[in-house]
Amino acid sequence: MSRNPQKKKQGRVYLVGAGPGDPGLITVKGLNYLKKAEVIIYDRLVDNSLLDTIPDNTEKIYVGKGHGCHAREQQEINHLLVAKAREGKMVVRLKGGDPFVLGRGSEEAEILMRNAIPFEVVPGVSSAYAVPSYAGIPVTDRRLASSFTVITGHEDPEKFRSNIRWDIISTGSDTLVILMGMGNLATIISELVIHGKPLSTPVAIVSQGTDPQQQTITGTLENITYQVKKKGIKAPAVIVVGDVVNLREHLRWFDKLPLFGKRILITRPEKQAKEISPLLRERGALVIKMPAIEIIPPQSWAELDHAIKNKSYTWIVFTSVNAVDIFFNRLHVLNLDTRWLGNVKIGAIGPATVRALEEHGIFADYVPQIYTSQGLIAGFDRKSITGQEVLLPRADIAGKELSDGLSTLGAKVLELTIYRNIAPDGDASVKKMLLKGEIDVITFTSASTVKNLIEMLNGDWQVIKKAKLATIGPNTASALKQSGLKPDIMAAEHTIPGLVEAIEQYYEVEVVR
User: What is the pLDDT of residue 372?
Assistant: First the structure.
């Protein structure tokens, strides 16, 4: 009796709204589908940091479209959606804003329906109201506006005539929100005025809305084109017409955030940048990443494997998240788990290392009050570790201060290189920004980020001086000084939140000055 052939897996497409730009504005449902997707087909206005949340093996296809520049024509996008779904894949079509608000989401859904491809629409936060909100402009207000109308400023060029009834819209709605209208701004204003809008009607134009590079200009129908030309405002932008624009000066909040528009360079490895990036974004900063550290394995695992199996140590002291993750990954490679460590005591240099240990089911026995090598040594001085063996798994370039300090206290220190720290090539576009002096702050979280960034910039390393230099603690500040650089900002608490707080306080003082 023959077996039934295995049924082919059915693919499915999710049309997901990514929101207007700020990656935090994607819905929970949209983000969940994004993380589970096998294929992501995404637009130009989708924030790249959203893609950082997905596994590396997920297929990502860029199909962005801008004025006069299309990575893929719409017909190609339609074909991709159908083809990937027919491969049995879970496909997320990630679109800026909301898929069904002045986009082509309905056309894509129709193509899927015609090809019998199951699909689901996940609404997104639309730029029509989110961008004005970020500019401090409510689209309705019970005193000024009981209605708002969303209009496209760029209709299908193949249409015989416009569907926009300017004669009705101009005076029939309290607030007008126009998307994709910058290319036709003069025509839009002319239509509004011809059909009854007074020249004195307030207008706001918000460019790069919800992004730290957001720019907002205000004026009237009479002078807004002059203001646009004067300030050089470009698309993508949202145009708001109506009395609610006058509320901006009282309600603006986004461009008043403490680090709004500051370009802050993160030199941490990509994985560890996930802690600092959201904290900076919450304060309005534009986060730019160029990892100055690449972690690679040691030339041999033999020494670490021997140390783990031998288990003659009383203490293991971890001084970085990398050391924690690599040590426990190696433990698992040897078919061992945390039970193997038995009565071994664990020391951790600070909160981030403590959290990394807890992710592996380990609670640190000792964390110093001051999160530095000196702080660790001072605490161990009160623990009577004379004659005890301390395992110190570290990077190849780690300094000798901690191991020498523990040895001075009478400990038998077994210092092992369990990972190597090298300087990557670096992003050419970020290097160009540094050369032009377009970075406001460079953050350094270890001495190696200082050394490696200098190495990455080669003969141009002096451009670092064009930015404010922020360090997580005294050791990193010392590395800057030894390289002929002056630290401008240093965290009082030697943690990532402490570093972000120090940057914020620096600019608060600058404003007072």
Answer: 87
